[in-house]
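hi!! sorry for the late reply, been swamped w classes. u asked for the two structures so here they r. pasted raw, havent cleaned anything up. first the sequence of the first protein and right below it the tokens
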Amino acid sequence: MADDIVFELLHSEIINYALEQTKITNGNKEVDLSVVEYIGFAAGYKIMERLTREWPRFKDELDTMKFICTDFWTCIYKKQIDNLRTNHQGVYVLQDNAFRFLTNFSNGHQYLEHAPRYVAYTCGLIRGGLANLCINSIVTAEVQSMPSCKFHIHVQRT
């Protein structure tokens, strides 16, 4: 329980830091969440390195995504992803029906404009974890109604 609170407070401070830096550098014009996403990327890369240290290589991309939805997500958020979908062509959608950083908000639409601030870190976590497993990807998030969130993963083929 105490770990959860510390994690949420740290995440909140990372968001506040990024917003303040944006105000200083851009003159309060547009919020730049790339710093938050990069912090998530670095953390996700390191977490995946520790998690898979004793694991054999994954047999395919889908097996890797299943690992992200179960073990990786459980390590970070203490629950598994609620739904994983794919088109079997390098596009995956992970759905969390009660995303941790959005559960404290009201279900009203007035907070939807602030949702990207709270999902950027997790987009970075996913991208960093996949990068550690040699999967180059673009990760975006979609929030249509609070606290549900869909993470879209587009695997970059080389």
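now the second protein. again sequence first, tokens right under
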Amino acid sequence: MECDQGLLCRFGSWTLLSWLASCLMVFGGALPYVPQYQEIQRSSNTEGFSTRVCLVLLIANILRIFFWIGKQFELTLLLQSVVMILTMFAMLHLCCTVQNTNRVSTKQHRLSDLDFRYFWKWSAFEDYLLFCFGFTVLCAVVTLLLLDSAVFVEMLGSLAVMFEAMLGLPQLLQNFHNHSTKGMSVKMVLLWTAGDVFKTTYFVMNESPAQFWVCGSVQILIDVAILLQVLLYSQDTRVKLG
């Protein structure tokens, strides 16, 4: 009897830990953007944050949702995608609001202009919504036509994780272009790193599709590169000021 109670206790503890890990997976990906959101609100400046991070994550998570339709893996990862999409829309809404408030020129850049020079640099938040809606409809039509193809479904998963693996790349390139990390929340990058280490471990332990842990490994490398930029550019700043 005592043995059965011990087994039940251990099973209950494992279930609780598993539930907590799943909750962390669902909402943990959104947490790094809280300090960046607060930084933009505080400074009323978006120059340090690359909105193309939002583009990469929106495409990655929309593709992942359709990958889930073709290959039902953990529900946790599907919910994580929904939370990330909502988070990216919140970031874009804030960036549009701040940029429109600070804009000196009355010139507006809209999706309907079809000017590739201003792709993902639109003035209205509604244009970002419209682009994502169009992309989602396109994915839905193609997925409906090719859902029975195992090759297509695996390719969809590979594309999703390839885009997600490139999450930090726009921020890395923007820092390089600016020769500065000013305006970028270092807390965001540290949370990216911690989250990527956690989720890569989660993928391996839960035997998720190989695409996921490969993606996580690439993200960790990019996170480390951005943290090295923080050290490099902060040293350059001290030298210039000194």
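hope this helps!! also noticed smth abt the second:
DSSP finds nine helices and no strands in the chain.
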